[in-house]
Design a protein that fits this description.
The protein has 148 residues and is α+β, with helices and mostly antiparallel strands. Helix content is 29%, strand content 25%. The protein is built from 6 helices and 5 strands; from the N terminus they run ααββααββααβ.
Length: 148
């Protein structure tokens, strides 16, 4: 939860050779077996940085948030002219981004969204960062910002 008192779910960035491997992993999880999760989404993600979350030193006065965005149906068309501005925006915020990359279709051929992890003071700051991104609000049909 936003106040850091209750878990609302989990986010795992893990490597498997294919969707079946990921599905087998999640199906074997005790929380899955116990029916704790309301919904489970498995999405292909391509890391855009060589930094892993475990390598990122947490700051004592900030919180980490995941920004998970799914493209609108015409997202690919709308992304193309904004790509350079979007990357420039991300590169201007390297002080808060510790993981980022596109969500891909199962074949790995088409971008269907974005996943970023940011280290900021609060949820409002994370949401403002995404709304300021050139491709943030206009391309995504939905996005969620969650404390991690």
């Amino acid at each position: 939860s936003d106040d850091n008192k209750n878990a609302l779910g989990s986010l795992r960035l893990i490597e498997f050779p294919d969707r079946a491997g990921a599905q087998n992993y999640i199906n074997a999880d005790p929380y899955t077996k116990a029916g704790i999760f309301e919904a489970i989404t498995i999405a292909r993600w391509k890391p855009g940085l060589n930094v892993r979350q475990r390598d990122y030193a947490r700051k004592p006065v900030t919180m980490q948030f995941a920004i998970h965005a799914h493209d609108k149906p015409d997202g690919a068309t709308r992304r193309a002219p904004l790509r350079e501005a979007h990357l420039a925006h991300l590169n201007q915020h390297t002080n808060i981004i510790f993981a980022r990359g596109p969500l891909l279709d199962d074949a790995g051929e088409h971008t269907i969204g974005s996943l970023l992890m940011v280290d900021v003071a609060n949820k409002a700051e994370a949401e403002a960062f995404w709304e300021e991104a050139p491709s943030g609000g206009g391309i995504s049909r939905s996005f969620a910002v969650r404390w991690i």
